[in-house]
Recover the amino acids of this structure.
């Protein structure tokens, strides 16, 4: 059974519901952070505040930040980028509506607007063009705009065999600063 993010969310083949759902998500985000409303047409949202230097997270390490411990920050990853979503505790904390997304890379779930456990993975295989577009939109306008980046998943930087992912270029990553690397 698939649990959708909003009541009335997209049913199979319903483009209008998908557009409405994305608009509801963006409206809710702008309501929660009014500074996002100051973005003009064609402008990118302002970047989140810069936090401490980023680090690499294994799946096991990221799982420790799933919102279960009251005194721990709450982290989640989208597209291999780990965000500190603690400031949205009412959404991501223990018992909160989107807590299922935390402590892991939930890229597929974000793309599909789904909380189905099968969708709470980094795997984007088989996503539609519309889902990929939605993923990029939410990644940029919600997560990158609102939450500090605290690291990357090991999967983003390393291949499954542990060898370096040659496609990963730190200088192309958000908040990269060569001084933080040494």
């Amino acid at each position: 059974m698939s649990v959708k993010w909003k009541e009335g969310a997209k049913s199979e083949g319903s483009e209008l519901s998908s557009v409405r759902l994305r608009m509801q998500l963006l409206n809710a985000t702008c309501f929660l952070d009014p500074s996002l409303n100051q973005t003009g047409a064609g402008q990118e949202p302002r970047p989140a505040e810069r936090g401490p230097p980023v680090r690499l997270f294994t799946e096991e390490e990221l799982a420790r930040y799933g919102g279960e411990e009251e005194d721990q920050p709450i982290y989640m990853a989208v597209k291999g980028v780990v965000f500190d979503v603690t400031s949205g505790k009412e959404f991501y904390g223990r018992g909160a509506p989107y807590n299922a997304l935390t402590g892991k890379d939930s890229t597929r779930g974000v793309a599909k607007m789904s909380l189905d456990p099968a969708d709470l993975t980094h795997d984007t295989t088989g996503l539609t063009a519309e889902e990929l577009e939605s993923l990029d939109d939410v990644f940029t306008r919600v997560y990158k705009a609102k939450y500090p980046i605290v690291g990357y998943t090991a999967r983003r930087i390393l291949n499954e065999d542990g060898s370096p992912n040659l496609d990963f270029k730190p200088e192309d990553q958000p908040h990269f600063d060569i001084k933080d690397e040494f």
